[in-house]
């Protein structure tokens, strides 16, 4: 797998340091509340689990599975809800945990859906932000790193279901996905 990586953008150590800093911000804000953490599957699972270990306050966890990728590399712009929440969010603060903000379609859809269900507040916590690809006005409240307009894998992010288990974030070689 490592031979398929063109460049490592962020090491495990850099990721750990950034997650701790974000967790400190979330703790300062939510220590006296019990927010619902909504993990966007499957890419955000590694990020979400590592964040949860750093949050020393009461919270609940749920997940959604949404998809906007038609062929695995390009967003189709149409968002499909594959798996819905099992929690009632009415009147609750919600923190959406997302692996990467790309076009913004998925997070706009999700934020609008949860707002319509009566969430007290909605904040977005994204591991990565790729602003050069944004098509919809969506901003995260907490961002780990900004990444270039390249195909990013590792630490939960994948290509065709692979590379999620890399302990770092890297750029996938074009030769891997352009064949």
Automatic annotation (TrEMBL):
Keyword Chloroplast found: no
Source organism superkingdom: Bacteria
Pathway stated in the Swiss-Prot or TrEMBL entry: Purine metabolism; IMP biosynthesis via salvage pathway; IMP from hypoxanthine: step 1/1; Purine metabolism; GMP biosynthesis via salvage pathway; GMP from guanine: step 1/1
Subcellular location as annotated: Cytoplasm
Catalytic activity: GMP + diphosphate = guanine + 5-phospho-alpha-D-ribose 1-diphosphate; IMP + diphosphate = hypoxanthine + 5-phospho-alpha-D-ribose 1-diphosphate
Pfam family, any one: Pribosyltran
GO molecular function, one term: glycosyltransferase activity
EC annotation from Swiss-Prot or TrEMBL: 2.4.2.8
Ranges where the Phosphoribosyltransferase domain occurs: 11-159
Record InterPro entries: HGPRT, Hxn_phspho_trans, PRTase_dom
Keywords: Cytoplasm, Glycosyltransferase, Magnesium, Metal-binding, Nucleotide-binding, Purine salvage, Transferase
Co-factor(s): Mg(2+)
Primary enzyme class: transferase
PANTHER family in the cross-refs: HYPOXANTHINE PHOSPHORIBOSYLTRANSFERASE (PTHR43340:SF1), HYPOXANTHINE-GUANINE PHOSPHORIBOSYLTRANSFERASE (PTHR43340)
Family annotation (NCBIfam families): HGPRTase (TIGR01203)
Function per UniProt: Purine salvage pathway enzyme that catalyzes the transfer of the ribosyl-5-phosphate group from 5-phospho-alpha-D-ribose 1-diphosphate (PRPP) to the N9 position of the 6-oxopurines hypoxanthine and guanine to form the corresponding ribonucleotides IMP (inosine 5'-monophosphate) and GMP (guanosine 5'-monophosphate), with the release of PPi.
Full protein name: Hypoxanthine phosphoribosyltransferase
Native organism: Limosilactobacillus panis
């Amino acid at each position: 797998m490592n031979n398929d990586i063109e460049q490592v953008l962020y090491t495990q150590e850099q990721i750990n340091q950034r997650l701790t800093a974000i967790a400190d911000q979330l703790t300062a804000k939510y220590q006296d509340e019990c927010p619902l953490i909504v993990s966007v599957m499957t890419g955000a699972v590694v990020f979400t689990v590592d964040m949860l270990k750093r949050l020393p306050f009461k919270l609940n966890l749920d997940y959604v599975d949404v998809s906007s990728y038609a062929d695995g590399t390009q967003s189709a712009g149409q968002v499909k809800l594959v798996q819905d929440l099992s929690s009632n969010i009415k009147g609750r603060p919600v923190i959406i945990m997302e692996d990467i903000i790309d076009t913004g379609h998925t997070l706009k859809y999700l934020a609008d859906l949860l707002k319509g269900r009566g969430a007290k507040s909605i904040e977005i916590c994204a591991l990565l932000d790729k602003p050069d690809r944004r098509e919809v006005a969506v901003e995260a409240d907490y961002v780990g790193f900004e990444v270039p307009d390249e195909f990013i894998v590792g630490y939960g992010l994948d290509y065709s279901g692979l590379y999620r288990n890399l302990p770092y974030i890297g750029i996938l070689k074009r030769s891997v996905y352009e064949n």
